[in-house]
Amino acid sequence: MEASQNTPAQSIDELASILQGVGVSEVPKMPNTYPELNPFDVYRAHITELLASICDVEKSIILAAMQWTTTLEKGDLQLPVPALRKKGVKPDALAKELAEKFPESVLVERPTVVGVSLAFFFKTSPLTKLIVPFVLKNGAKCGFNPNFGLRDPTDPSKGKKKMIVEFSSPNIAKPFHAGHLRSTIIGGFLANLYEGAGWDVTRMNYLGDWGKQYGVLAVGFDKFGSEAELVKNPIGHLYEVYVKISAISREEKEVMDAKEEEIKKLQEAKEPTGEKEAELQALIDKGVDEQARKYFKRMVDGDSEALGVWKRFRDLSIVKYKDTYARLNIRYDEYSGESQVQDASMDEAAKILEEKGISHVDRGAVLVDLSKHQKKLGKCLVKKKDGTSLYLTRDIGAATERFEKYHFDKMIYVVANQQDLHLAQLFKIMELMGRTDISSRCEHINFGMVLGMSTRKGTARFLDDILRDVGDKMHEVMRGNADKYAEVEDPHKTADTLGISAVMVQDMKGKRVNNYEFNMDRMCSFEGDTGPYLQYAHARITSITRKAPLSLEELLSADLSLLTEPKAMDLVRTLACWPDVFVNTVKTQEPTTVLTYLFKMVHTLSSSYEVLKVVGSEEELKKARAALLVAAKQVLGNGMRLLGLSPVERM
Ligand SMILES: NC(=[NH2+])NCCC[C@H](N)C(=O)O
Fold this sequence. Notes:
Structural class: alpha/beta
Protein name: arginine--tRNA ligase
Family: Belongs to the class-I aminoacyl-tRNA synthetase family.
Bound molecules: arginine
Shape: elongated
CATH superfamily of the largest domain: HUPs
Domain DALR anticodon binding: 534-651
EC number: 6.1.1.19
Enzyme class: ligase
Number of helices: 26
Number of strands: 16
Largest sheet: 5 strands, parallel
């Protein structure tokens, strides 16, 4: 591997010496800037100092006023002059004045005036000398900033802030639907994001693994289950069993409803019904529903045999889930679940709700009327007539338990926007209970629907099916190019990775709240902004840098002043944005922020190959170009890994 993993990060002294080399005597520094982790901060602080010397505006105001540009043609940074909040002067006049008075700088050109804004272009030669070594030395850490997650940015010894990201959270014996898929992808990304920002992240999977349906499942397993199948394919097999037993339960219900109808008629006709009623009772007792109810009751009461069966289903499912998640580069620190919520914490919550007069009893059930506080929150049930808990009740208990256990500073629930109401109710109830210490730290990260997620073999039920299907599709696409295909070492594995990238990129391309259409052909195409295209870009740059195998030392010794082509400069300027893109992503919490950048970057990259030939160039030039391309590969790889993708080296 070239410049990556364990290479030491660039130190502030190294930065200082590079800056001295280009004629800047001191590292420009301002509060909340991290020049050693983000070269843009060097420029922001530098420009701020220069502007402060020619106008009477607070440095902090100048710094905050500086903005990113949308395209390179608009400069590297811009400053809308009205944001300087200077009273009594016309912004366009002030812009002109500042541009004229702007002192000579070795780092930036004199700003150009565009309307009421100043556009700053960084001088490219010093920028290149700053950026290329910065990326090469920081390697896999490049772009990330572990300071954001510090409890106290001025005192790292106080440790990191604690975050729980709860995501994926499928239901055992039920299909893994699109909502779970998106939660898995987006949640995995968010966990990486916050880790990159220096938070101490706990990845949590909150399984749907409790409720009467697990009684149904146990009854079903008795009838239709197979030990061998269970071990081989627990998730699929349990689902099969569940489907079969649910069908029986539905049929039975029809029969019972008919019987009940009959009895009612007899009662109306004042005929004796004793015998019929006994018959119905016998039917009910024998029925799946009643047996399941009894079975679940045993689970609730802690019957070890009943719990043992259920625990096996759960454990085997988790083993299988782990494999699948690993394909997506996801691992969990905790598999919690609805079943793990303690009665004690739910009882405690119920007590508080009652004492504070938040809940009331209605026909034996316990309700909370949230509509008084916010109309759309409505009324919600927190305890059923028979005393059993609900989804919402378990979430209340779970939140308090997690807070006890982790003392988190922030907890993110990555759940589809179909559950907006549920989570809003949860947070509101916590608040009314007086637990603002918890509710204020919770955030629901939601997302829209996936439309038409079916595969060619029918409707996809499980994550594995989806991944297998896109993998097959990718394999087919790869076979389309026979020459290339022959060169790929392990086509199955590559197709699998590409397929996963296809699904993930399609999912993360738009804003989270948008719905999107699951379109297998489009996502698997090498054309357009797709996962395979991104992978192709990574494989291509790898293949080019492979042809100039240079050590990190050699790359760092390159004479970067040889990089003068406009294409090289565009690439350097684009790479320089990466740490800022990361900062912005922490703000937006949108994977599309990263993807949009990466696509822009690979477009710049691919249009530069023609000009920046490595092979065949004279030795020194080759070294300089290789240094730039290795840096580009590093940034591309870092961005892809942040999203949860596995960059491929060949394809
Ligand atoms: N804490 C939560 N409620 N998380 C979301 C759980 C999602 C739930 N298992 C479902 O499939 O709908």
